[in-house]
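ingest -> validate -> predict -> emit
validate: passed (alphabet ok, no gaps, 224 aa)
predict: started
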Amino acid sequence: MAPTDQQLVLLDFWVSPFGQRVRIALAEKNLPYEYVEEDLLAGKSDRLLSSNPIHKKIPVLLHGDKPVNESLIILQYLDEAFPDAPSLLPSDPYARAQARFWADYVDKKVYDCGSRLWKLKGEPQQQARAEMVEILRTLEGELGEKEFFGGEHGFGFVDAALAPFSAWFPSYERFGEFKVAEVAPGIAAWVERVGKRDSVAKSLYAPDKVYDFIGVLKKKYGIE
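emit:
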């Protein structure tokens, strides 16, 4: 059986922005796959633990019997394993390097800072707010006047990496007491555009569902 003919299975958790990246990429590439929901609040399945024994996290993409871990690595793998499907990364080596850089920036900055917004109070929360504003403005500077971060390539690697967080932004706004439209209007406009893509719209949950989930996490961790 050729690698491209082997079944794809995604081990995921419904609200995970990292798993949603993979769902968006699979939709953009029109690749069929089996979705397996992991109930992470109840515990991790043996299948997940054996597929990702190092980090023990979702998402995990199973291609045949081979697991691929870490969301950005999975996106790059899909580009390479399915060369006939639409690519998320541009063909130019420098443009590819830049896309990887900015996706890595999103990976290292947005989720961690956003988590501190709802976990912390007082001065530490204010520091997280200032950092989030800086992150959004930095991303806005990279986006510039482009429709998508992929530029001439169109919707691409960075867009897929950042798009899931658009459903988390309203929660970040509530906890951080700021508005994305005010601090980074270019990103707010991008959120509107990206949300109209079928791949994104069908992969994300409504912001109020995300906010409710954060409430579950706050209760779980004893955060008032």
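The first helix runs from residue 17 to 28.
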